[in-house]
Design a protein that fits this description.
This protein has five helices and eight strands; from the N terminus they run H-H-E-H-E-E-H-E-E-E-E-H-E. It is of the alpha+beta class. It has one domain. The protein has a four-stranded antiparallel β-sheet. Strands 3-6 form a two-stranded antiparallel sheet. Strands 4-5 form a two-stranded antiparallel sheet. The longest helix is centred in the N-terminal third of the chain and has 17 residues. The radius of gyration is 16 Å and the shape is globular. The N and C termini lie close together (about 5 Å).
């Protein structure tokens, strides 16, 4: 379980609404997200954790094991007081990563329309192919894109690789640190703060 310290530390905490949500490593369908979110709301009263997560911007991109190990050691220097582990994880299948309790919705990247209701159905269809096909056409303006390239209000995305620090005990990484991690992995990265 994870908590987004950046949101709390920066005073940007938004109320958790009974909306679709999910934890980054949870592979499930959209209806299951809704049920899981109710569990999240119950658990968040008793405990909470944060994860600082970096995923490749390309869902299928994988670094070498050596590059992943270097990135783990580098991330450890950025989060020296982390309360949890710093790990690199490889998955056989594509996984959806989102902010958990930070979930704030999803918007069409072309016209800016809220597409969260449609997104749930699109996620169900993508889940049926184990997220092998992320291609979609938005209902609002018929924009051809992918589920990975939608505008997630709180960053989210799909990947088979993740670099993570549990309870990193920092407010934020710098742009320079983010660049260093990207260079260590040889991949463009997306940063996601997960709060559970």
């Amino acid at each position: 379980m994870a908590v987004d310290r950046s949101r709390i530390a920066l005073g940007r905490r938004q109320p958790i609404r009974p909306r679709i949500s999910g934890y980054g490593f949870l592979r499930t369908s959209a209806p299951r997200f809704a049920a899981w979110h109710q569990t999240l709301l119950t658990l968040s009263d008793a405990m909470s954790d944060n994860w600082l997560v970096f995923i490749p911007t390309d869902p299928e991109a994988l670094p070498s094991r050596a590059a992943a190990d270097r990135a783990v050691e580098l991330l450890k220097t950025f989060v020296p007081e982390a309360y949890g582990e710093v790990l690199a994880k490889f998955a056989e299948r594509t996984v959806f990563h989102c902010g958990g309790g930070n979930w704030s919705g999803v918007i069409c990247p072309k016209c800016g329309t809220d597409v969260e209701g449609w997104w749930m159905d699109a996620m169900d269809k993508a889940w049926a192919s184990e997220f092998k096909n992320l291609s979609v056409t938005t209902p609002c303006c018929r924009h051809s894109t992918t589920l990975n390239d939608l505008n997630y209000v709180w960053p989210a995305g799909f990947s088979r690789f993740v670099l993570e620090a549990m309870n990193p005990n920092i407010r934020q990484t710098t742009a320079e640190q983010d660049r260093a991690l990207s260079e260590a992995l040889g991949l463009k990265l997306r940063k996601i703060w997960i709060h559970i």
